[in-house]
Structure formats: structure tokens, C-alpha cells
Write a structure and sequence with these properties.
mainly alpha, 6 helices, DNA-binding, homodimer
Chain lengths: 149, 149
DNA sequence: ATAAAAGAGGACATGGTTGTCCGGTTTTGG
DNA sequence: CCAAAACCGGACAACCATGTCCTCTTTTAT
């Protein structure tokens, strides 16, 4: 239902939020979030293009959130990586209705809207500061920051 | 986001609802709903297994809704054909939290729940008797019933 | 200047979804 | 009983999502 890509992107973003704007390499993010490194590298690209994260190449490079977690809604991450396709016209393609959705597809679009709404309702900051005592992304052990140097 | 399979199943069910419990062959349903015949045949099988529709083989056979549209929620069709996988435990697989969902996945599951809720909120009958003047499944022309005989 | 670190991007493998096809089985009408 | 109608089920093709790998480019430290 939700793609792996979305899952991975959200894990990465949550992790980057948890280190408070600091920069982390793909390897660090992958290790922390249990995502295949090589694939995560691909997932990060649309996040960069979508200005969710900023990337820096070269030594001491990596990825960092480009906005504060308070201003980053989960929906933005989803849309950057695997956009929710709202139904804007009848997939049957008959022009007779003009732009009006038929009842069935109106309902389907409502369902998509509900999901979109759920994603729009939460910021990354809220995920981090959940009222519960649990740690985001389960309690994967604190990941060492840059150990070199 | 929503699979083709779900889309097709819902079209088929809506069509069968629109003919008031009468039986229709795969070919008739496919023509009415603009779905590839051979694939629709596959989609119908889980609907049969899920008791959404009943099938009859042989001459004058076909598919018919096994319940009245008032009692058929869209969600049931979705679940029969391509079940919404709710998130019941952290996909990171760490046992430390026990059965508790981490904040991120709680939110994701909320989104899935919202979608599930939207599907559960509507019956096929409601799709057919939409307050708007539009015809379900767009206005594909009335499909002739069994012309033989 | 050079070497190492790290992201960017493309080529390729794998698996699941979508879609086609065909033979088998059940049912009905004559 | 026989033939036609129709669903059942499995084999196979095409395509996209997922995942791996390798090379290129950028950047920094020495």
C-alpha cells in the first residue's frame, strides 16, 4: 500500500531530524535506519530535488535537513518521493461527464484525500517528540556521529 | 497508490450492483467497465473466494453479487482483492519495543486507517444512488443484457 | 597537487504487478 | 449424449518497483 521508497524516505528524514540539522552520510543514515545503502542513495535524490534535504559532496559531505523539523510535514516527504496521485478525472476516459468525477471515483479520491490529510497533519518534529515514551524509528542504538578526525 | 486490481474490482462490483443482482459474464462486465477481459477474469476470482460475488459455470453462467449493494461496503471489495496491510509492528524488526509501534509508524498506520475508514464508510448502494446526477462508472452506455435466447 | 571521501548517475539484476493465452472442467440446452 | 457456453487454473510475456554495482565528479585535508 505504501511503497518501500516512502518508508525509506521517511526513516531517513526522521533520522536526520533526530540529529538536529547535522549532516550525515548515506552510510550513516542507512546504518541507522536499516535501509539498503545503495537504494537509499537513490531515494535521497528526489528529497534533494524537492528541497527537503540539502546535500554536500566530497569529504565531510552528506545530507542534512534543509528546514527545521517543525516546518517539515510528512506529506512533503511523501510527495517528493512517491507522490500521491489524486484522481482528477474519470479513469474510464469518457469525455461525456466533462471534468466531473463519477461517484465511484469520487469515493476513491476521498480515500486518497483522507490519507493525504493524515500525512499533512504531522510534522517531523511531532514524530520526534511523541507524547509516548517510545523512541522514533524504534530504538535503534544511538548512531555515532562522524568518528573520524 | 491504489492498484489497478482494486480499481478493476470496484468497477466490476459497481457494475454488478447496477444490474440489481442479475448475473453477467466476464465478457459483459469487461465491456461495460473497460477492463481487459483476461485480466478481469483473474480479478474476479478473489471476489468469489471472498464471497463478494457468486459465480456459476457453464451455459448461462456468470457472476452476480452475493449480497445486496446496501450490505456491501467498498472496503470489503478492496480487502478481498488487495488487502490494506495495516502496520502492526515496527518494520525495523527490533524486538525492544515489544508490540508498541514507534511514533513514525504509528502515524503511517494512522494514514492507512484513515484510508480504510474512508472505504468502510461507503456501500455500493451509496455509490449507485449518489445525490449528484452523474451515472456511476461515468456514463458508459447501457450494456445490453443477455441477448441470446 | 594529490589522495581520499562522498554524492550523482547510469547500467544491470530481481521480483512483483499487470496482462495474455490456452487447455481443463462444469453446466445447460437440444 | 453432445456441443457450446462459461468459469477455473496455470504458464508465460511485459513492465515497473526494488535493489546492486560501478564509474564520474566534487570537495576537503594534507
Amino acid at each position: 500500500m505504501l511503497s518501500q521508497t516512502v518508508e525509506y524516505a521517511l526513516r531517513a528524514a526522521t533520522y536526520l531530524a533526530s540529529v538536529e540539522g547535522e549532516s550525515r552520510t548515506v552510510d550513516q543514515i542507512a546504518a541507522a535506519t536499516r535501509v539498503p545503502v545503495a537504494y537509499l542513495a537513490k531515494v535521497m535524490r528526489p528529497l534533494v530535488r524537492g528541497k527537503i534535504v540539502a546535500s554536500r559532496r566530497g569529504v565531510r559531505g552528506g545530507f542534512a535537513l534543509s528546514r527545521s523539523p517543525e516546518r517539515l510535514r510528512i506529506l512533503e516527504i511523501v510527495q517528493a518521493v512517491d507522490p500521491i496521485q489524486r484522481i482528477t478525472h474519470c479513469p474510464l476516459g469518457l469525455a461525456a461527464h466533462g471534468k466531473r468525477l463519477c461517484p465511484l471515483h469520487k469515493r476513491l479520491d476521498n480515500a486518497l484525500a483522507a490519507m493525504e490529510e493524515a500525512f499533512a497533519a504531522t510534522t517531523l518534529a511531532e514524530v520526534l517528540s511523541e507524547p509516548t515514551r517510545s523512541v522514533p524509528l524504534c530504538d535503534f542504538p544511538a548512531v555515532p556521529a562522524c568518528r573520524r578526525h
